[in-house]
Amino acid sequence: MKRRAQRDDGAARSEGVSPSMSRRRAMTCLAWAGGGILWTLEGGVPRGMSLGGVAASAAQTASGAVSGNTLSFVQISDSHIGFNKAPNPDPAATLQSAIERIRGAAQRPAFMLHTGDVSHLSRPEEFDIAQQIVNGAGLETYYVPGEHDVIGDDGRAFFARFSSVSSVSSVSRISRIAPDDRSTGWYSFDQQGVHFIALVNVLNLKPGGMGYLGDTQLAWLAADLKGRTHSTPLVVFAHMPLWSVYPAWGWGTDDGDRALALLRPFGSVTVLNGHIHQTLQKVEGNVRLQTAMSTAFPQPAPGDGPGPGPLKVEASQLGRTLGIRRVDFTSLDGAPSLGDATLAS
Asked: How sure is the predictor about 207, in pLDDT bands with cuts at 50, 70 and 90?
């Protein structure tokens, strides 16, 4: 499992990713880095806003971009607590920096999503440190595991800590749970008319490190969506991309197309994930798939170099590579606009 986790630290070209993606371009994307994405949903329309600082957030609030009856939440990913090599021997410090930005936002989000790889090697002390720092945001936090979180025990320790009912302060908002409670890892809940779905695609990985959902989880997803009107906005979050970013490096989900087939009938679907430590976007009709930055270290662009793994950058540049992508959805079927912020900004 450890070898598999190490193998999964990478990227390359595929459908949906610019074939001209180069390391230079990747670094440009990574320069959008920051600590997390502040997502807002206003009238059912998801928007992503920069957490680049209090001033920026205050300006957005002042301009009316986030006001009134809105739902705002934050996404962070790939904190990799326990990683101790170049380019970031102290990922706890960069996670702390991200959390401080979230705490400092003028528009307080309702909750936070962590899209996996909370730890680097699934050690209890790594989970302890991560949980303590994340809790500092003072936000209810919903987790899904990354492949680094399920090493050795298929995620039992992770699920016991981060997916137990006791970890969620407002349990009543979880309208649907997996058949045998949240210990299975996948679940859903509703917030202000938006349906959130947490998927687990890091167990039983396929050859090459591709993610896998499995028949049981897909059947649960179909049942969860059944009876919902197609006008219900959906936000799906998982660790590995549901789309094939670069299968040669295991950057995708082997049966992700089966999940997307269930999601496509809905008018507004936003899929959030981590794993590849950089911002990429793919739009398929009403489905928008968005990868997120890490708070720990960058990865190479898909296919750029011998394989996946931490991308070494100068210490002075690290803050510019950990980042955030701002995404503003102006209409349910419109193209999103992107913004940026970095831990260095």
From this structure: confident
